[in-house]
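Both lines are quoted verbatim for reference:

——
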Amino acid sequence: MQKLITGALLLAMTTASAQAHAKNTRTERIKGIDRIKVLTETSKSAAKTTATLWRVSAVANYDNSGSAPSLQDSSKYVYSNGRGSMFDYSELSYNDYGIESDVLYDTVIRYQDMGSGAQLSGRDFISYNSNNKALNHTQQQMNSGQMTNTNKTVVVRDGNDNPVKNVSLTWNSGNWDTSFVSIMTYDAQGHLLSDSSYTKFGGVASPAYRTKYTYDGSWNLVQYLYDYWDGTMWTGNSRTNFTYNGTKLVTTTDQEYVNSSWRNSYMDSIGYNGSGIYNFYESREWDTVGAKWVNSEQEIHTINGNGVPSKVLYSEVLKNGILTLKQKYFTMPMATRCVRMYMTIPEV
């Protein structure tokens, strides 16, 4: 017997345009380290230029842990002009929040079931420049029957539309207060070199974190170094090293700076099918006692004739070394568009 969770994408995703593809990283925060799991190709300038190029219109998530599927939350997207949306098939996900949203909406209206049916819970707004690059993201939440400001991010871009400054603000008694600032630097070719973050309290900005990026001769990202401010200087905290087969990412190795030396923590291996499509992922953790890598998780993607996953198996390795199925995802794509996705969890 299995528990079934379904999520329905009610209108499918836009076909990616041929414009300005750039490498971006997908990260997940584990044990204080931003682990880069998969390096994906995305297009932030995806455009809906004709009626044949679809974009997501609404999303609904259902939980079937009881006797019947029940709505958990949903979102409705409102657009102007030709801005579109994207779906990351390597992660079976998309990001619809903030300046880096993959859904280039003007407004998203969010609903949530609080126990008595779907109710309006919040909305987000994003404004753009003439090149459809995000400049401002504002979040509101329902509070005592009224929409109330909560958070806002303002972006400053250079002449090449690279973000050089992100300012995070929180709503406080009718005013926007700056809480966090990020400063980005680039080389002459537009490659990100550093991202420095500062917290702000009482009108005083203090350094917090910094990430520095290193590339090889082909401009593949080969390392990022994560520093924190110890009160007087930047101190190395963690780093991630990347290896490639040509331009295909094959391993990422995370290390922590402990007792004046770098110590392994995680390693991810990524595989591809004969057509170069990502279809395998394996994660390992460093055993500090045995000084060796120990398998922890694995993903296997089944790729259909359209080059997108029809099934993804997530497994984890138990302490006895046995690989045990943890989750299954099944997708229902229309060509390159995902219209429904199911997740099953084996009954324990």
Q: What stands out?
A: The CA atoms of residues 167 and 181 lie 5 Å apart. The two ends are 9 Å apart (CA to CA).
